[in-house]
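Quick review question:
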């Protein structure tokens, strides 16, 4: 088992559900694209350019008169008071990013729904997975609602007196990104599950492993789950940094300015506001979480891939350990570079996508270690004891 492991089976001849698995992973990739465009939309300050929302979408302005009307509508909202020098062409630019982001979200919905109907009609959705599909659809639909709830926080009349740059509320931006990341994670895990369906005798294979191999895999599985959760929490903290535009402050490393811990880190009252509205606090938290993720990933990879232990793992797990170690180190380096260069759009957008690369590596690693789940280990150990008992009985009979 350790030589081949449990590879993804993408050939329809060996896995009749392989096309469905590929479709789910393709949808997950589309979500990554949507997150990337959403990040650029925020970085270009385009998110408040569309002041209305239609669930099914509408055509963009086409004629010059339609553009003038849309621009006039934008001028009725608070952001215009800070951007009165904007020209119509500049408005078209930011409107294009927001419109593209919204329509890409709806396109992802079609990418999910149409194949789902087709595969369901052909009986190519695995038994027991329809509930997951409904859940995934609900998550995608909720994402659209959360997006508009986020945008509305920057359009209200209560924002007209803002002296700072008007943007959506950081907590709502964080909810929007968190929902997208949760949907992506669920799609990725489901796709990997479907491509792994031919491996029906996993418990029996686990019974053949040595106690040392099972113990090592169990340790790594727990570590991978915790590390993936930490990576997800780091993404959430990054959204708070983005929402507060905190990356444009304390552009030094490793210190924040002249201090390791800024004096203003807990200056807001009530105290809880610091954790989602204080620039110093949200950046400090993101630094700590980001470096913790990188150190944790390297440590887990070092433990798992030590010469004496690596041979106890499947090829998929070894690949996952290499991936998470390299991805986390690369992401930490990219994050520091983005900070030092004052958050240029190209680096900031790459840093956001990089966070999903780290998360993907963690999910892949945890999934590759599913054979070390307690249920499989118990069944495998029971099967091993049963086999040993039969052999003893046969020896006595002889």
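Suggested answer, residue by residue:
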């Amino acid at each position: 088992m350790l030589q081949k492991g449990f590879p993804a089976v993408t050939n329809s001849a060996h896995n009749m559900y392989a096309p469905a698995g590929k479709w789910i992973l393709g949808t997950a990739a589309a979500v990554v694209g949507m997150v990337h465009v959403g990040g650029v939309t925020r970085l270009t300050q385009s998110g408040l350019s569309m002041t209305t929302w239609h669930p099914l979408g509408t055509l963009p302005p086409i004629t010059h008169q339609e553009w003038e009307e849309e621009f006039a509508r934008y001028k009725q909202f608070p952001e215009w008071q800070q951007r009165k020098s904007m020209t119509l062409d500049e408005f078209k630019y930011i409107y294009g990013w927001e419109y593209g982001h919204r329509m890409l979200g709806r396109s992802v919905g079609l990418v999910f729904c149409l194949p789902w109907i087709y595969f369901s009609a052909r009986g190519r959705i695995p038994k027991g997975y329809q509930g997951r599909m409904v859940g995934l659809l609900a998550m995608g639909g909720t994402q659209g609602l959360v997006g508009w709830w986020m945008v509305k926080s920057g359009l209200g009349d209560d924002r007209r007196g803002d002296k700072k740059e008007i943007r959506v509320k950081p907590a709502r931006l964080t909810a929007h990104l968190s929902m997208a990341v949760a949907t992506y994670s669920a799609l990725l895990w489901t796709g990997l599950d479907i491509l792994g369906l031919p491996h029906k005798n996993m418990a029996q294979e686990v019974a053949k492993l040595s106690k040392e191999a099972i113990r090592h895999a169990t340790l790594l599985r727990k570590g991978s789950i915790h590390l993936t959760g930490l990576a997800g929490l780091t993404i959430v903290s990054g959204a708070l940094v983005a929402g507060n535009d905190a990356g444009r402050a304390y552009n030094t490393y490793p210190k924040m300015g002249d201090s390791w811990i800024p004096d203003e880190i807990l200056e807001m009252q009530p105290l809880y506001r610091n954790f989602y509205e204080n620039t110093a606090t949200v950046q400090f938290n993101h630094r700590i979480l980001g470096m913790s993720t990188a150190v944790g990933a390297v440590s887990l990879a070092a433990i798992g891939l030590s010469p004496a232990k690596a041979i106890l793992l499947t090829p998929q797990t070894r690949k996952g350990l290499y991936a998470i170690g390299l991805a986390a180190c690369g992401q930490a380096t990219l994050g520091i570079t983005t900070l030092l260069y004052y958050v240029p759009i190209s680096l900031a957008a790459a840093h956001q996508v990089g966070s999903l690369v780290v998360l993907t590596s963690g999910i892949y690693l945890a999934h590759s270690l599913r054979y070390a789940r307690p249920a499989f280990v118990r069944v495998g150990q029971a099967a091993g004891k049963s086999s040993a008992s039969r052999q003893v009985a046969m020896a006595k009979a002889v």
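Why it works: The longest helix spans residues 88-121. The radius of gyration is 25 Å.
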